[in-house]
Amino acid sequence: MALVALPNEASNPSDTPKELEIPPTIAITPCDPWPRPYFFEDGLRKVKPYHFTYNTYCKERWRGKELLDIFATEFRDRPKEYYKSAIECGKVVVNGQPVSINSSVKNGDIISHTLHRHEPPVAAQPIGIVHEDNDMIVINKPAGVPVHPAGRYNYNSVVEIMRAERGYGWNPLPCNRLDRLTSGVMFIGKNAKAAEKLSGQIQGRTVKKEYIARVIGEFPAGEIICEQPIMQISPKLGLNRARASGKDARTVFRRVAYFPSQSKKGSGMISAIDRRTEKEKLRDSHMVWKSKEGYSIVKCLPLTGRTHQIRVHLQYLGHPIANDPIYCNQRVFGPSLGEGDASSDKDEDIISRLSRMGKDEVAEAMAYHDEMMEEYNKKKAEKMTGELCEICDTPLYSDPGPHELGIYLHAKKYACEEGSWQYESNYPDWALPPPDVNVSGVIVEEEGILEESGVVELKESSCLSDNPMAMAISEPVCTLPSRPLWVMPG
User: H-helix or E-strand containing 486?
Assistant: First the structure.
């Protein structure tokens, strides 16, 4: 066989091997571990730390500001010293290029931050399915789980948990939004057409929404309407207040039941032993909320959809949600807990005090501190431990306490105004009578709340007897008026 000389292919300039470029010092690579790095411990769903790159466009309020100042004021989960080091060593870049801590940003800039990500734990409670068809899933969202990835949360979100359960390529499309701390009915579209249709109904206010809340004190009987406008006074903290110059907001409230304190006279209950010191008694005498005995279960009908609307309106009415770490926090709002306060005089102090929560102070509802709360729950709370991650030197947080995983606010029912559909979840455990409490003297004004607990079937405005399996009296303790009892004007 004759040997034939072949042309030298490498002689073609386009085929000449090029010298490889030196790789960048910081390689920004997408990180999307699958399966998701979940593990369960102590009743919590946790995520193993992983590397992740945040990418964000320059926001309008950042324009012209120095990069270090932006991180120090906008991102609270790490100290300023961390961000200074991250910028200097190239973990933070602008438009893919290293910058100095004094560099300012402009419109159109993309800021990237590569870090070893530590997500907070959430409750291990599974996402309940209320209804499912070819277009939509109606879920019962657990309290404490955010809907979308945001802030410190990514895989510990409703969207990512459902994707992990149903497959990597599955794309859940939330149609309504609930606050992270709120539980209850949510709609997840399976396709864009179905999601857009329901989202349009909700935005067009043709969907009736009913929430259940547990508030401090004896909420007034009858229909209570609050029309205080609401304004966001701190985007960074997500803090909203009642303000005359805010956006229109309207919520209708109706008390469902009132559970008197065990120490309330005439309740027929065994009084709790008062173990407070004289100093503690003096302290409590200055706390307005301490005089509001017991708690109420309240039905909430928001007619508008402002952020934190129900929480802000209940605070303004003087009956904040009993375990709300923001709006029922005495260290933030003072002894009155913000009752009837629509002024801006104290805004700077309130923002300053709230900004310290979760760093060197525990963020929790002060009104939640009563004789029924165990001491360990006061101490067991999410805050910085003083320890650092061995990989990235990130300050570590302790696990959240059980009382931090949600608030007493539950989206119970969503219904179409035309009556074509309605979806409803059960009452949460915190809205039902405690199993070990004598329910004599409990005032119940609507059917269902105690029927669901298997205790007794109730009619409107009824009172429980010493025998929780029977009606106590034939005449109602109080009646519901046919018109609003009083209205809080805007």
Answer: strand 486-488
pLDDT of residue 468: 30
Q: Give the number of other Cβ atoms within 10 Å of residue 345's Cβ.
A: 8
- Whether 311 contacts 409, CB under 8 Å: yes
Mean pLDDT of 348-363: 66
Beta strands at 251-259 and 295-302: parallel, antiparallel or unpaired: antiparallel
- The 10 Å Cβ neighbour count of residue 313 is 28
Question: What is the Cα–Cα distance from 88 to 429, expressed in whole angstroms?
Answer: 50
Q: 407, 414, 49: which is closest to 216 by C-alpha?
A: 407
Q: What tokens were used for 167?
A: 């497959």
Angle subtended at Cα 258 by Cα 254 and Cα 264, rounded to the nearest 5 degrees: 145
Residue 349 pLDDT exceeds 70: yes
Instruction: Give whichever of 221-235, 260-274, 432-446 has the largest mean pLDDT.
Output: 221-235
Query: Rounded CA gap, 68 and 60, in Å?
Result: 16
- Percent of the chain scoring above 90 in pLDDT: 48
Residue 152 pLDDT: 87
Q: How far apart, in whole angstroms, are the C-alpha atoms of residue 40 and residue 46? A: 6
**SS3 of residue 184 by DSSP:** strand
Chain mean pLDDT for the chain: 78
Q: For the chain, what is the total number of helices (H) and then of strands (E)?
A: 9, 24
Highest mean pLDDT among 228-232, 335-339, 473-477: 228-232
Q: How far is CA 121 from CA 41, 280, 375, in A?
A: 9, 34, 22
409 is written with which tokens? 């606010």
Contact 408, 181 (CB under 8 A): no
Catalytic residue set = 179
Residue 274's pLDDT is: 55
Flag the least confident range among 27-36, 78-87, 392-401, 441-450: 441-450
Model pTM score: 0.75
Amino acid, res. 143: A
Q: Count Cβ atoms within 10 A of the Cβ of residue 301 and give its class: 0-12 exposed, 13-18 middle, 19 or more buried.
A: middle
CB 143 within 8 A of CB 407: yes
With 0-12 / 13-18 / 19 or more C-beta atoms within 10 angstroms meaning exposed / middle / buried, residue 260 is buried
Coil, strand, or helix at residue 368?
helix
Tell me which residue has tokens 């303000």.
Answer: 243
Q: Which amino acid is at 1?
A: M
